[in-house]
Amino acid sequence: MAAEHPVPAVRQLRLVVEAADHEAAVAFYRDALGLPEEAAFTGDGDARVVILDAGRATLEIANPAQKRMIDEVEVGRQVAPRIRVAFEVDDARATTARLVAAGASEIAPPTRTPWQSLNSRLDAPADLQITVFEELAAPAAVDPGHDGDV
């Protein structure tokens, strides 16, 4: 059923993450991963936030079976928390090595997936589990086995 009034378009997706070690998290995501700083704000009581540009954003809604399948493909076992953040990069192997050198813990090395991407899994600052992925082939039409980020 069509709505009588069009729904306003979402202009931006922001993922807000609390990081106990703010400086280390900023250094990791801005400097090691390479997300450009868009803005930074401070407030009373040492309140600080840095907004980093992560390019195009998507929101993936996966059911439990899909989440388990992605873990199995990328890692070989169930490890992901309820929320995982994925970053598309040009070179998954080099980025993974750079992020491990910057303090991330490798959960799984870059692994070729059935949907033609090269994905690694890392435990990263701010208590985030991240996937770093490199698309190896041009994206095809919607593929039910492809969850968009991996």
Automatic annotation (TrEMBL):
<dbReference type="InterPro" id="IPR041581">
    <property type="entry name" value="Glyoxalase_6"/>
</dbReference>
<keyword id="KW-0456">Lyase</keyword>
<feature type="domain" description="VOC">
    <location>
        <begin position="11"/>
        <end position="135"/>
    </location>
</feature>
<dbReference type="Pfam" id="PF18029">
    <property type="entry name" value="Glyoxalase_6"/>
</dbReference>
<dbReference type="GO" id="GO:0016829">
    <property type="term" value="F:lyase activity"/>
</dbReference>
<protein>
    <submittedName>
        <fullName>Putative lactoylglutathione lyase</fullName>
    </submittedName>
</protein>
<dbReference type="InterPro" id="IPR029068">
    <property type="entry name" value="Glyas_Bleomycin-R_OHBP_Dase"/>
</dbReference>
<dbReference type="InterPro" id="IPR037523">
    <property type="entry name" value="VOC_core"/>
</dbReference>
